[in-house]
Amino acid sequence: MYYFSLFFFYGVIVSKNTKLTRSEIKRQDIIDAACQAFQEFGVQATSMDKIAELAQVSKRTVYNHFATKQALVVYLLNEIRTRTLVDVDIDTTYDPLRSVESKLLTLITAEINLYSCGHYIDLTRMAFGHFLYHPEELKRELDKVMTQETAFQRYLRSACEHKQLNIPDIKFATDQLQNLIKGSCFWPQFLKIEAPLTDEQKHHIATESAAMFLARYNNK
Amino acid sequence: MYYFSLFFFYGVIVSKNTKLTRSEIKRQDIIDAACQAFQEFGVQATSMDKIAELAQVSKRTVYNHFATKQALVVYLLNEIRTRTLVDVDIDTTYDPLRSVESKLLTLITAEINLYSCGHYIDLTRMAFGHFLYHPEELKRELDKVMTQETAFQRYLRSACEHKQLNIPDIKFATDQLQNLIKGSCFWPQFLKIEAPLTDEQKHHIATESAAMFLARYNNK
DNA sequence: GAAGTAAACTACACTCATTAGTTTACTTTT
DNA sequence: AAAAGTAAACTAATGAGTGTAGTTTACTTC
Question: How distant is the Cα of A20 from the closest Cα of chain B, in angstroms?
Fold first, then answer.
């Protein structure tokens, strides 16, 4: 049976393009089951027995692949980190042929789409559920992510250097822009209190966020 | 012994201004202990034995006051709701003698101070920890809060009516403003990934949020 | 293609710790 | 004396992790 997870590893597995051993399949089943259960019920409320049952695998097999529950959690969390680290892969240098507004819209839209990805939300939910009462750990993990400059920051700096924008504090302005977006596109989804956004809603939020940002920082 | 909780009931108890029975004291000890433990470790990770120990009360006494653990959680959560429902108590009609900017700053500052209150953060943390995997319940609770108009909304509407601001969608604009503030003042604190804000930081965020908002919506 | 082998899987019974909730026999407060 | 508190032992369930004896799979080797 040819099998490749649509979720983890799919780049790797597909390019490997080979049969998976039964062991690999089982392992993947365990990971998928754990991922799903952790997201749905939380780490605490998910027993190893439950995971084994969901994965249709004996409990012993779960323990053959992951020595402890903690090991399973840590494994999944690392997957999250590598997954969410993919920064928006867009050219971030100022282009005189293109309006700042248009470029900004592209960047914002990319960010919104990241937040709209079901996996992204589900995985951060799982991570936060785990870390909510382990703030030191959370901080350590986040620091790894925080230190890198975002696509926003790079572009804003570039546009400032070309005198298109006038931003005294680029880091602060980036946060403002991100807050405008996250407040509407990330947090409500994260708390599952709002239905997924339609394309029109996304577009509206993107244009309005850009409008407000430019109203403040456009160099006129 | 005269006793009044600095946390729950203090308005009530102080005005009652009378001796508390031992039973009432014990009950309060239990509530305080549960509140603290739930916030620190989460509901799941806090056992009734632990609460009894923290409250320096026998386990049976805990059960005399609260029939089940669930009952204790529900009780505390209701306290949260009534506590956080206190809206900013500021006059929200447009005053021609005062600049919109100044008034907005006052409102924003009040909002920031609410978020900066340790209790507010701790209690929402507890609530979210509990509700993160009970979205339907969360939604139901939030709906009770969401339906009421915020102080922001009332003032913005009033200022629009006096042609001081030009806001096509007041609800949306309110969200934008709130997102600007929450992104810096609430969420980082909520996740305990940022130290509490200094007064300077608060002031900076307040002025910058107002500046961006007015750059977009000021009627000039 | 048949037989052999090591690794991985299975079912299941087990230990040990924790936790929600109860019961009992006795003491303190009001 | 009634109401409320106490310590301590108890039940019943759950859940992490282990040990074991037997089975399946994949991959040789003949």
Answer: 34
